[in-house]
Amino acid sequence: MADRIFSGLLLLVSIGYGVMAFTVIKAPFQYDPLGPESWPRILSVVSALCCLGLLARPDTERLDLTGKTSTRLVVLLVLLAAYAALFEPLGFVIATLLFCAVLARILGATMGHAMIFGVATGILGFGVGAMILELNLPAGPLRALM
Known about the structure:
The structure is a single chain. This protein folds into two domains: about 1-65; about 65-145, no CATH class. It is about 75% helix and about 0% strand. It has helices spanning about 1-25, 35-55, 65-105, 110-130. Helix 1 (about 1-25) packs antiparallel against helix 2. The longest helix has about 40 residues, at about 65-105.
């Protein structure tokens, strides 16, 4: 029953997002074949279809969250909020490095492996995003080095 309630509420959110994606989001020009308007539209349709699938066939197993798992989920939400808040001031590389390193540590990586993962994700992610995909990613304090 909880799956149906959750998917029903998420379906309402998806429909609201879809209405905005199809009516409010307008780009003044198209700079790629799909354009910036297409991704929110695709996301809203796929999300609504997934919610409808859950409404039709919810899980048969009961989900029991232990205290440790619940705590990790709350910490993850706090980390995501911190990542969003620090994304522009610290820039993509540093914010991503911190987020990925802390998340890897929470998931059981050693401190060394977590730092290697964070550094690699921050630098490689910036390289792929800014240089290959030509996205406008914030550089933050590293702007002087670039």
